[in-house]
Each structure stands twice: as structure tokens, then as C-alpha cells.
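hey so u asked for the seq, here:
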Amino acid sequence: MRKLRNLIALLAVALFTTEATAQSSVPGYGQQLQTTNYGKKLGRGTMSYEVSFDYPELGPRPLIDSIRVCIFRSLDMQTPPAGTDLDAYLSQEGNKFFNKAEKDYAEEMDADPDFYPTESYQQKIKLIANTSRYVSYSFEGHEYATGAAHGLSWKYGFSFERTSGKTLTWNDIFTPTGLKQLIRIVDRQLRAQYYGPMGCEPSYSPSELTLPAAAPVLTQKGILFTYGAYEIGAYAEGLPHCTIPYHLLAALMTQKGKTLTNQK
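ran it, C-alpha cells below
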């Protein structure tokens, strides 16, 4: 995906803009978490490349460092040093994309002057939860490669412990026994929240269902579980997901998980 992503971005160079909104702060606890939304749009003919992200400017140092690493890793970029002019940095990255696209597509363009790929890539990275104990981000995107039968979408997230900046894992939130019991609850909630409203049954067998590859995401309404394309069903089934209220999961949680989500 990384190579494809860079190629898509590089080819969409005729129009290259980098933009940042005015700073906005999300109410935090203790040291305030303040973010700026940065966006980059590139386009050329039928090709497009667009990314946007909520960049943490101020906040607990371990937290903002951890978030920054996740943001730039998802964009296949090196995390720039603190204090970097992000507008200039994104422009620099765009030029790198352009140079690589010229090199990779030179042979095809020379062989066929009418060659013109149809490529697109979009990703939005958003701050979705900010509490006294944790902060959560969502990563959503879609890409299409020339000649593919269809594009590929993704949706996942990360939750960070506010004080340490640690990325929370399954084992941070659930006990080993709880993880085994969790699958049945996720199955029921997927059917009620996702498949039921669509008027269809899932293609997976309950006995074969596993927990998502993506980490669970803490939100104000509960824990969000999201499966990737093809992970438990056909492409047409989309990205199955559900948000399960904390009170339904408290008995399965570690003490740390209960503390983070304010459960007894």
C-alpha cells in the first residue's frame, strides 16, 4: 500500500495546495490538548490525492509525541522534529511524491503517449475523544488504483493514555478471559447495529468470528470495534463495526480498563 500511496500522490501534481485551518482547541483536562487541522489537496486530470489531520500542537509531551508518530506513520512520512513548519514540510513531501511518480511512470508514458492513469487517495485523521484519562483518534480513507475492479476503504483508530501517551492495546483494556468472552458480545452487537439495519445476515459463521485486527477505540459512548475490508466478509459488506456501551463490557475489563473508562 505504501508504494501505491506514494505513486498516487506523486502523479496528482498539476494542482498542489497545502492548507491549515486556524488553531482550535478541544477542551482537555490538566494541560489542554490543542490541535490544528492541516490539509493537503493535489489533483491532475482524473487523479486526486487528499489528506487532512488534526495535529497536536500543545498538550502533555508524551501524549502529543505519540499521536504525531501515529499520524505521520499512517501517511507514510517521517515524523518531523518539533517546531517544523508543517506547510513547508508538506510541500517538500509533495515534491518528493512528484519526483517519484515521474520516475516510476516514465516507461509507460514513453511507450504510450495517451497513457493516463486514474488514481485516487484520501485519508482523514480526526481527534474524536478527549477525556481526563484517554484521547482517541480515527483514521479513515479510500484509495483506487488504475485498472482495479474497485477501490479499497479503511477505518481504524487508536486510543492513547493521556498521561503517558501509551497507545492502548487489547491487553490494556481486557483480561485474557474477557477477550474470549468478548467475541460473543461483538457478534451480537454487529448483528444488531450493523447488519440488522442493512437488512442482511453476516456471511461469517459465529464459531469462526475473531476479534478485529484493529485495536479497540475508546469513545464517549463506548468501545468502537471495526473490521477491515474482507476481514470477516465479502467486499460488499463494507467495514463492519459496532460501538458497545462500557457497562456491557465492565466485567471483562482489566483494572486499568475500568479506570480509564470510569467503570466499577
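Residues 86-111 form the longest helix (26 residues). The beta strands are 15-20, 24-26, 33-44, 47-58, 120-130, 134-144, 152-161, 217-218, 223-226, 241-244.
lmk if thats what u needed
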